[in-house]
Amino acid sequence: MIPYGRQEVLPADIDAVVEVLRSDFITQGPVVPKFEEAVAAYCGAKYAVAVTSGTAALHIACLTMDLAPGDRLWTVPNTFVASANCGLYCGADIDFVDIDPATRNMSVVALREKLEAAEARGKLPRIVIPVHFGGHSCEMTDIQELAERYGFCVLEDACHAIGGWHQGTPVGACDHSDAAVFSFHPVKNITTGEGGVLLTNREDVAERARRLRTHGITRDPTEMSEGGQGRWYYEQIDLGYNYRMTDMQAALGLSQLQRLDDYVERRGALARRYDHSLADLPVRRPVESDSVRSAWHLYVVSIEDGEYGGRDAVFERMVAAGIGVNVHYLPVHLQPVYRRRGFAPGDFPEAERHGRQALTLPLFPNLTETDQDCVAEALADALRS
Ligand SMILES: *Cc1c(COP(=O)(O)O)cnc(C)c1O
Q1: Nearest Cα to 73, choosing from 134, 154, 150?
Q2: pTM above the 0.90 mark?
Q3: Which of 156, 171, 181, 183 to mutate to test the pocket of ligand 1 (most atoms within 8 A of CB)?
Q4: How far apart are CA 122 and CA 101, in angstroms?
Q5: Has 46 been annotated as catalytic?
């Protein structure tokens, strides 16, 4: 079975992790700050805060922006459930903005309309989370303009997009957002096993995030109510969590980061090969806007409803042919947890259509061209049956 995604772990990665295992600190040592500095420098952001997962990064990012019960968080239905769950963790109300069918990212037109309506009812969101689907950045300048006009925070779910670019700037630079989040799950562009990072140029967000990932505890006397008591003294001033990344994970991430540019280039080359080999098939291929360089985390095609038995039949034929296809994403608002909160089919038609038609093909740096040709042939066969 050719999987849809797969990590690459090289001897240098293993050596880096082993070195940490032989050292004095396997967590809370020197490698996590080194990894944070490297990721911040790579993206051109001021601060990076490493945590246990992309989900943890989303959660504490919401907390640093004071998301609380009664507040509203908006994201897209075409994402992993974590982009919405982080708001529920904070007791906020979740709502969704439909997608643009071309990029499958948050539609700026839909966002603008929804904001106008929300303003009239006095129900503007505190946070909006655009998701860079498949590694293709959202239209961040337009979203930032709306953020300034309507006064919400922008939190980029960039879990697919490390290594991608938007208007000549790396994704994660946060020049159009309050913060951005990456995940280092093995299926993502680089991995730490489990892990994530929060990037920001806001000192207040970075400081609070550092505290929240370690129980809300501070050792800085200027932040304490009873400061200046001694070196042994600390205070818990926030309700935080244990979301700390280990030095073993950071060492793996630091080693993988050296290859990120090569990975993204290879993914892009494979994407162009798919564009070529699928050109005559009746599927809609992913697009890349002029102002964007995608990180090509996913290669998702769409199969029209009813054609060749539709996506579900094509999916089954691909699996039978040994191709590990996937679906990104079943719309989040149709998950039982969200239906119980009042969402229903028909609420976000473009995301629902995408969810019915989407088929993710294998794409990862060490996918061989021979294997990729098998995928293309299997898809051609599946569309003939
Ligand atoms: C992977 C992913 C997450 C969650 O990241 P974890 O590290 O698995 O917690 C969130 N959002 C999107 C879009 C993702 O792809």
Answers
A1: 154
A2: yes
A3: 183
A4: 29
A5: no
